Amino acid sequence: MKIGEIAKQAGVTVDTVRFYERVGVLPTPERTESGYRDYAPATVERIQLTRELQAIGFTLADAVDALAAHDAGGATCESEGWRLQVVLDRVDAKLAELNALRERIVQAQNACAG
């Protein structure tokens, strides 16, 4: 599949596909005789998985590492669960920051009301 088809099916831009290739999300595709990239249909699923990982809090680097572990074989929930824990810890830290900020705002409101 050509890059435009992949981008359209994955719901991203052509630039995103090229970027994902550069950073290691996608393997280097075959090239046609005329030099066009020729992606496997599974590329769409890989892009969508990457986007989903990012949506749940993985950084792009985290996603690349998780995909590399999967590609190496043997990646299981037991062996890779720590990645989800890292993201959860990051979310918990952010929630704590937001709760502290909320408390400061409430205190400021109370001070204004008093």
Mean pLDDT: 95
Percentage of residues in DSSP E strands: under 5%
Which regions are unreliable across 5 or more consecutive residues at pLDDT < 50? none
Helix content: over 70%
Structural class: mainly alpha
Strand order of the largest sheet: 1-2
Structural commentary:
The chain has 5 helices and 2 strands; from the N terminus they run ααββααα. The termini are far apart. It has helices at residues 3-10, 14-23, 42-55, 60-72, 77-113; strands at 30-31, 37-38. The protein is elongated and about 75 Å long. It is 72% helix and 4% strand. Strands 1-2 form a two-stranded antiparallel ribbon. The protein is mainly alpha-helical.
List key phrases describing it:
two-stranded antiparallel ribbon; 2 strands; mainly alpha; 114 residues; single chain
Topology (elements, then pairings):
Blueprint: H1 3-10, H2 14-23, E1 30-31, E2 37-38, H3 42-55, H4 60-72, H5 77-113
Antiparallel strand pairs: 1-2
In short:
It is built from 5 helices and 2 strands, in the order ααββααα. With 114 residues, the chain is mostly helical. It is elongated, with a radius of gyration of 20 Å.
